[in-house]
Amino acid sequence: MTDVLVTNGTVLTQDADRDVIDAGAVAVADDRISAVGSADRLEAETDPDRIIDADGGAVIPGLINAHTHVSDILLRGAFDADRGLYDWLFNVKQPALSVMDADEHALAARLYCVEAIRSGTTTFVENATALDWTDLEPTRRKLAVYDRLGVRNVYGAGLRDRSPDEEFERLYGVITDDGGGSVHPGPDALVVGTEDGLADAGSLIETYHEPAGRQSVWPAPATLATTTPELLRGAYRLAEEYDVMTTAHVAEAEAETRERGAISSIEYLRNVGYLGERALLGHCVQTNDRDVRLLAKTNTPVVHNFRANMRLATGFAPVVDMLGRGVTVCLGTDNTILNDTVNPLSDARAVATAHKGYHRDSGVVPAGTAFDLVTRDAAEAIGRADDLGSLEPGKQADLAVIDLDRPHLTPAPDPVHALVYGLQGGEVETVLCAGEVVMEDWELPALTDPLPELLSTAERTAADVVRRADIE
Ligand SMILES: [Zn+2]
Fold first, then answer.
1. CB atoms within 10 A of CB 233
2. 396, 371 in Cβ contact below 8 A?
3. Contact between 391 and 26 (Cβ < 8 Å)
4. What is the extent of the structural domain holding 110?
5. How remote is the CA of residue 252 from the centroid of ligand 1, in Å?
6. Which of 295, 304, 390, 423 could form a disulfide with 14 if both were Cys (CB 3.0 to 4.6 A apart)?
7. What torsion, rounded to 10 degrees, do the Cα atoms 222, 227, 230, 233 define?
8. 26: CA distance to ligand 1 center in Å?
9. C-alpha 57 – ligand 1 centre gap (Å)
């Protein structure tokens, strides 16, 4: 039985051999891939209910964005660029998120999903670091949007259990004393008790995590500065107990290194029991050779948030070294306030290009590696190598069809090269997630508000959020 046959495209399987099938096809039965092969053979052997003509384009695994923040999308472009991490975090992001209501979070989720799906994304790991555990309505509303639009989401349920010490409170006072009267939720906003937080995360997993479905939930300690060793250890144990993963922001800025003092963030995490294959570490910019060896030794995956690191000038994560030592690395678009897109291939292009310049070595991060970072390596990094990240029989039917018949993609003798270095956005025409067509010919059937209306509502609402938060 074949429900859908995506045919007549160049199929980039991203299997172990990185097989590329010219004039290929992918057959889908229910939510899984049933066959991958030549279009001639699969058209003869299957009797599909529905045929999707890839029209000579590329058929790729659905892209995986392994670290992103959804609600922030309404703040895109809302501040001038010259800010450091804490200035941005405490004077832009936190004030704005603190004034958003559930309707606005749901609107952000719709805008996010439209952009993500149109970029070929089928899975994203959301870091809900500003989660207010006393009001889960924004969470419920966002998960409902993901479900309706048919995209695969990992909800990283943000946890923070450490109140700031006196010194940090003073620093917070200085940073936020901008004289502009901005709304500041305070340095200990969203802090919960360790046991309460872990218990709430456990019940959120029990309520929303679908082991065989599109929705996952992970416990997500926000940062090392805002969590205790007990919370980090507890989150890792929770991940083991529910067979999920956990994720945190680690070693992003130099300020964090100073806070840790003599011990590195990675050493600290090893000592508290938060390194291992179930912990996806975001950033890892401020890391040394020993840290990278520890990451490799403990099979701890890393998500490289390149564009955010460039915008906040935190530096280059030693990704080339990590890759060389066998650390599993993937990409995250991080905050839309800093990127400014949620398009994984756009970031793959930046990563593949910039690391060459940084290392003065045109051989580092070749196009194929960059493509792996948003497909098969990303699936491994999020613990889903068995069913995501490549087009192979038995895996989830998550795929995107990309129109290569464009002037800027002609000629394209190597489709991987074209995808990594050539896309300008807008070339993804059709997307399937779990076998369902979530976009066909650039139309999203499950999107209830017409796109122009969604965009104008988002524009208006974003301006209102910025006004209410009094962001300068
Ligand atoms: Zn982040």
1. 18
2. no
3. yes
4. 63-381
5. 9
6. 390
7. 30
8. 34
9. 33
**Residue 355 reports pLDDT greater than 70:** yes
C-alpha dist (Å) from residue 87 to 79, 93, 178, 471: 11, 9, 10, 12
For the chain, what is the mean pLDDT? 94
Residue 400: phi and psi, rounded to 5, are -130, 145
User: How close is the Cα of 372 to the center of ligand 1, in Å?
Assistant: 21
What is the whole-number distance in angstroms between the Cα of residue 33 and the centre of ligand 1? Answer: 32
Residue 127 C-alpha to ligand 1 middle, in angstroms? 6
Q: What is the pLDDT of residues 405-460, one digit of tens each?
A: 999 999 999 999 999 999 999 999 999 999 999 999 999 999 988 999 999 999 99
pLDDT average, residue stretch 193-197 = 97
Q: Is 295 among the domain residues?
A: yes
| Matching residue, tokens 């290569």 | 404
Tokens, residue 176: 């936020």
- Ligand 1 centroid from CA 315, angstroms: 15
Distances (CA, A) of 390 to 16, 42, 117, 384: 9, 18, 17, 11
Please count the CA atoms within 13 angstroms of the CA of 388 that sit on its side-chain side.
30
Domain-terminating residue out of 381, 398, 414: 381
Do 118 and 75 fall into the same domain? yes
Q: What is the whole-number distance in angstroms between the Cα of residue 313 and the centre of ligand 1? A: 15
**Alpha carbon of 249 to ligand 1 centroid (Å):** 6
DSSP per residue, 346-388:
HHHHHHHHHHHHHHT-TTSS-HHHHHHHTTHHHHHHTT-TTTS
- Gap from CA of 406 to ligand 1 centroid (Å): 34
Query: Which DSSP letter does residue 443 get?
Result: B
- pTM exceeding the 0.85 threshold for the entire prediction: yes
459 Cα to the center of ligand 1, angstroms:
23
Count how many domains the chain has.
2
Ligand 1 centroid, distance to 253 Cα (angstroms): 12
Distance from the alpha carbon of residue 333 to the mean position of ligand 1, in angstroms? 8
Question: In angstroms, what is the span from residue 300 Cα to ligand 1's centroid?
Answer: 18
Torsion of CA 466, 82, 247, 120, to 10 degrees: 70
Chain-centre distance of CA 154, in angstroms?
9
Q: Are 68 and 21 in contact (CB under 8 A)?
A: no
Within a domain: 351:
yes
CA of 306 to the centre of ligand 1 (A): 11
Beta strands in 252-328 (DSSP E): 279-283, 302-304
- 342 in any annotated domain: yes
